[in-house]
Design a protein that fits this description.
The structure holds 2 protein chains of 2 kinds. Helices cover about 70% and strands about 5% of the residues of chain A. By secondary structure, chain A is mainly α. Chain A folds into 2 domains: about 45 residues; about 230 residues, MetI-like fold (Orthogonal Bundle). Chain A has a two-stranded antiparallel ribbon with strand order 1-2. Chain A has a two-stranded antiparallel ribbon with strand order 3-4. The longest helix of chain A is centred in the C-terminal third of the chain and has 39 residues. The radius of gyration of chain A is 24 Å and the shape is globular. The two termini of chain A are about 25 Å apart. Chain B has a domain of about 70 residues. A 6-stranded mixed β-sheet of chain B has the order 6-7-8-3-9-10, sandwiched between helices. In chain B, helix 3 packs parallel to helix 5. Chain B is globular, with a radius of gyration of 19 Å. The termini of chain B are far apart. The chains are: A mainly alpha, B alpha/beta. Chains A and B meet through helix 7 and helix 8 of A and helix 3 of B.
């Protein structure tokens, strides 16, 4: 008999280290492209029959990378005692981060429950799935005022509705979709032989769910969680803007953009902050992936 | 229904006038496909019976009916004197498919423990039974491995051990060695002969391979397609299987008998295959 002990699985951290290196390389490349274009591009951009095809490369439109970095350390406003832009951006990002996490958690919970319901009852799937798909075609800007309006009439555990809750709901509204769809596919992924086995054991629906369907769905769930994380960050930023909620990075992007003419580097600090927020959330979900890799045949290899 | 004491041995499996039609009951009667018709078959306790026939003859369906994974359209199915449904609830049979169907996130041991876990057997007892079965199929050293670290034959052994976990008196096997290479296949056949002797299990074994059916069985049930039915039952008398059995003239004679039964033009319309 052939010896079945396969070669030791490579250290899982190595793969993550390599992707981290690639990420840093891409970031450096982006900076080089930016500065390279500034070097060779025309300050008026490039136009063909009055249609501008390439952006202006002047310092007002595309400030140098180091100007943006420098702007972080300077005071936010000229008044005495003002804290630096970095602090303002970090505060706003932290505010938005917490809302994103709340929206993500709510979205994941709702998505998983919907998927389980749809797996259990064929009728539920036929009835719900079209609406779940349609839900994502409704523009956020349209539902934001509705949710703010409804929220205003609600109280949660005796506490009045907070503006950030509306933002979290909208964020979750975007986040639940990939989870519901991915999880449903995952729950239906076990082989017929595996399902036949569970049936032959006279296993209940619940036992089949816990011992077979849920573990089998992890490989589908992890990418869905990642998509949900991206969606929840975008949802938070857009919802902050469309509901006019103060304190978050979405609001900061709008505020800083208004000062672009006099202070061209400032809007970019908020944009960098938003991008950083997205990276942090994505990294946290990757940690989940490592924890679940036992169930994920793709992740274990 | 008929569990009188007067019968000394209740048949392991008894099928009477079983029909199976797929797609019936709906409004579109034209779409109904008759998979099995008029099946009468008895399997004695401890007996090894193979079902053989061309693709589409319903041999897997027949096994799935016994397993209560499908419902017959007509006729009765009894497993140890009970309905197939009750036999499934009582875990009277173990089952193995062509796809080993191991859960990749569980170790070999945990895979074997799965049916016991579902039935609420305590951890120490589960573990002891798993060790015992691993020993029996010769995989004691691989208890902590994951299925994807095992070869196809080893995975199938785990599946067989899992099927035996509840000490069933009947083993249902649907082409379990179909995906294995010839060498591994013959070794697995030898092991299965030993296992069924050791456990006293009755076995219903679905296969495409004539030599396999002959080597393993006490009786080979030959089936013909469209609609699936039993066209012949070939008794095999090879005595104890030994190294020489596969080269024995009686073995070849039995293979020929089954082959001829498969070819016999007893069907109403001979269809091109």
């Amino acid at each position: 008999m052939k010896i079945g002990a396969g070669p030791g699985r490579p250290w899982p951290g190595r793969r993550h280290l390599r992707s981290l290196g690639a990420g840093i390389a891409a970031f450096v490349l982006l900076i080089l492209l930016w500065e390279g274009y500034k070097l060779i591009g025309s300050p008026d951009g490039f136009s063909l029959h009055d249609v501008r095809l390439l952006p202006r490369a002047d310092d007002d439109s595309m400030p140098h990378v180091w100007q943006v970095v420098q702007r972080f350390s300077e005071p936010e406003i000229s008044a005495a005692g003002s804290s630096s832009v970095l602090v303002a951006v970090l505060k706003a990002a932290w505010f938005s981060f917490r809302i994103s996490v709340a929206g993500w958690l709510g979205g994941v919970l709702v998505g998983v429950l919907l998927a389980v319901l749809m797996q259990r009852f064929r009728t539920a799937q036929d009835a719900l799935l079209p609406y779940i798909i349609v839900s994502q075609t409704v523009p956020l800007v349209a539902i934001a005022p509705v949710i703010v309006g409804w929220g205003g009439q609600l109280a949660v555990f005796g506490q009045p509705w907070q503006p950030w809750m509306s933002v979290a709901v909208i964020s979750g509204y975007l986040a639940f979709f990939p989870v519901a769809v991915g999880m449903l596919r995952g729950l239906n992924s076990p082989q017929p032989a595996q399902l036949g086995l569970m049936h032959s054991y006279a296993a209940s629906w619940w036992q089949t769910l816990v011992r077979l369907r849920l573990p089998a769905s992890v490989g589908y769930l992890v990418p869905a969680l990642r998509l949900a994380a991206a969606a929840s960050v975008i949802g938070t930023i857009v919802a902050e803007i469309s509901t006019g909620t103060r304190g978050g990075i979405g609001r900061l992007i709008i505020e800083y953009a208004q000062s672009a003419t006099g202070d061209p580097a400032r809007p970019w600090t908020a944009i960098v902050g938003a991008a950083g927020l997205g990276l942090v959330v994505a990294a946290l979900v990757s940690l989940l992936d490592v924890g679940l890799s036992r169930f994920n045949p793709a992740g274990a290899r | 229904m008929s569990t009188q004491v007067q019968m000394p041995t209740v048949a392991a499996v008894a099928l009477r006038a079983v029909d199976k039609t797929f797609g019936a009951g709906g409004s579109k009667q034209a779409a109904a496909v008759t998979a099995l018709t008029g099946i009468d078959l008895k399997v004695a306790p401890g007996e090894f019976v193979s079902l053989i026939g061309p693709s589409g003859c319903g041999k897997s369906t027949l096994m799935r009916l016994v397993a209560d994974l499908e419902q017959p359209s007509a006729g009765t199915i009894e497993v140890f004197g009970k309905t197939a449904h009750q036999a499934r609830l009582d875990q009277d049979y173990g089952i193995a498919f062509q796809a080993a169907g191991l859960l990749p996130w569980r170790t070999v041991r945990a895979n074997i423990e799965l049916p016991l876990e579902v039935h609420g057997v305590g951890r120490p007892e589960r573990r002891a039974r798993a060790e015992e079965l691993l020993e029996m199929v010769g995989l004691a050293d691989f208890a902590g491995h994951r299925p994807d670290q095992l070869s196809g034959g080893m995975q199938q052994r785990v599946a067989i051990a899992r099927a035996l976990a509840e000490r069933p008196r009947l083993l249902l096997m649907d082409e379990p060695f179909g995906a294995l290479d010839e060498m591994t296949r013959e070794r697995m056949q030898d092991e299965l002969v030993d296992l069924s002797a050791q456990t006293g299990c009755a076995v219903i074994f679905v296969t495409h391979s004539i030599p396999e059916a002959v080597y393993l069985s006490n009786r080979v049930v030959v089936m013909s397609p469209r609609p699936g039915r039993v066209s012949a039952i070939v008794p095999i008398a090879l005595g104890e299987r030994t190294e020489g059995t596969r080269e024995d003239t009686t073995f070849f004679a039995a293979v020929t008998a089954v082959r001829e039964a498969l070819r016999a033009p007893d069907r109403q319309g001979v269809e091109p295959r």
